[in-house]
Design goal:
414 residues, alpha+beta, Beta-Lactamase, Alpha-Beta Plaits, five-stranded antiparallel sheet, 17 strands, 37% helix, 28% strand, Nucleotide_cyclase, Diguanylate cyclase, GGDEF_dom, PAS-assoc_C
């Protein structure tokens, strides 16, 4: 029967090689003498766990198992220094009985799993770093079972980035219902294409409705990771990246790049971009549009006499008055100095002639400007060109408008 000291009766060569000991170092000696506790290591609980496992095997007569247990091995270095080398083992303690049922010994078997434990620990550490990195980047990972359409998040970030509670949104359809109507076209088809195998992945910038009713820009992407024998995806793994602030910043930069900083009106770049689309549409639809070039008479003396601050305020008021003369679909822009442009997408002789708009502009701009106790006067010179009959590009339309400028005093001047 095993002694209280748990004396080692025999040991195989494989174990001896693992612990760098000889048979003489072990046989006939107490197990816990050969493998003592490390008094300096508070985490060294393996020896105590082994004591309890052996005691339970003795008391119950049943096999006891220890999984990935930490058993540091005592070693004496060539310089005489004693160290405890961290090792991990799977261990089993099996009672061995005589034919008449007497407990003879405990058969102690071990499999070293140090490398496996360290690999798992490294993986967990890597996963933790990845989780922190994804969180810092505003990225949430999710997994979808295509049979149930259930979205299984890797973390609560997929919900919290939109202000929802974990589990508040479950299925793919529920997520799709949050997409802004302008971003929705093609989304279901895109996901279906990935599931059906017509494409491997998708990538889309979307606005999703947050719990507070606001819209947040999300980069949604997913790929198929498992397919059945027919090539149909059974599992998708994807990511939602919150890039709302970056998207809004990009929009602000674009707005700043395409708008006049003084008046807030579209600048030359935006006018040319928008106008090019209108000209192309007019050509396709056999319709007609107009461009009005407006030059401010007597602005330069105001600027020279009263200074740029007064001049800037006059230009700002001109911009406001021009907007008041036009429809919502018309575009008012400033292309430089005291030069403005109005693009009229749809004009006809009966309902909305360009000449009528020009007359409104003359009447409004000719009204006095009351700025800083000053009463200032301007009058506009206006040239009108039509597309596509006069030109099919913005630059030519503007030049045609400049050439056709007539100083209008009454509506009959055009």
């Amino acid at each position: 029967m095993p002694t209280a000291e748990v004396t080692i009766l025999d040991v195989n060569d494989s174990f001896l090689r693992r612990v760098s000991l000889t048979r003489e170092d072990m046989v006939g000696k107490g197990l816990f003498e050969v493998f003592p506790d490390n008094p300096a290591d508070a985490e060294d609980t393996g020896i105590e766990a082994l004591r309890q496992s052996i005691a339970k095997a003795v008391s119950t007569g049943e096999v006891q198992h220890l999984a990935a247990q930490r058993f540091p091995i005592k070693k004496t270095m060539p310089n005489g220094k004693v160290i405890f080398e961290e090792r991990f083992w799977n261990a089993s303690n099996t009672p061995v009985f005589s034919p008449d049922g007497e407990l003879l010994c405990i058969h102690h078997t071990t499999i070293e799993v140090t490398n496996e434990v360290r690999a798992v620990a490294a993986l967990q550490k890597s996963e933790k770093r990845l989780t922190l990195a994804l969180k810092a980047a505003g990225t949430a990972v999710w997994d979808m079972d295509t049979a149930t359409q259930e979205i299984i998040p890797a973390s609560d970030l997929v919900f919290s980035m939109l202000g929802y509670e974990p589990g508040e949104i479950i299925t793919s359809s529920e997520w799709i219902s949050l997409i802004h109507e302008e971003d929705l076209p093609g989304v279901r088809e895109m996901i279906d294409d990935v599931i059906a195998g017509r494409r491997e992945s998708y990538w889309r910038e979307l606005r999703l409705r947050a719990k507070d009713g606001s819209w947040r820009w999300i980069l949604s992407q997913a790929t198929s990771v498992e397919r059945d024998a027919h090539g149909r995806a059974t599992r998708l793994v994807g990511m939602h990246t919150d890039f709302n602030e970056r998207k809004l910043a990009e929009q602000r930069v674009r707005e700043a790049a395409l708008h006049d900083p003084l008046t807030g009106l579209p600048n030359r770049a935006l006018l040319f971009e928008y106008g090019s689309h209108l000209i192309a549409a007019a050509s396709r639809n056999h319709s007609r549009g107009a461009l009005m070039f407006i030059d401010l008479d007597r602005f330069k003396p105001i600027n020279d006499i009263y200074g740029h601050e007064i001049g800037d305020r006059v230009l700002q008021e001109v911009g406001r008055r021009l907007i008041g003369c036009t429809r919502q679909e018309d575009v008012v822009g400033r292309i430089g100095g005291d030069e403005f442009v109005i693009v009229l997408p749809h004009v006809d002789a009966g309902r909305y002639p360009a000449a009528i708009v020009a007359q409104h502009v003359i009447e409004n701009i000719s009204q006095p400007f009351l700025i800083s106790n000053l009463e200032l006067s301007l009058s506009p010179s206006i040239g009108i060109s039509y597309y596509p009959e006069h030109a099919t590009d913005m630059s030519s339309l503007i030049h045609t408008g400049i050439r056709s400028i007539v100083h209008m005093l009454t509506s009959s001047s055009i």
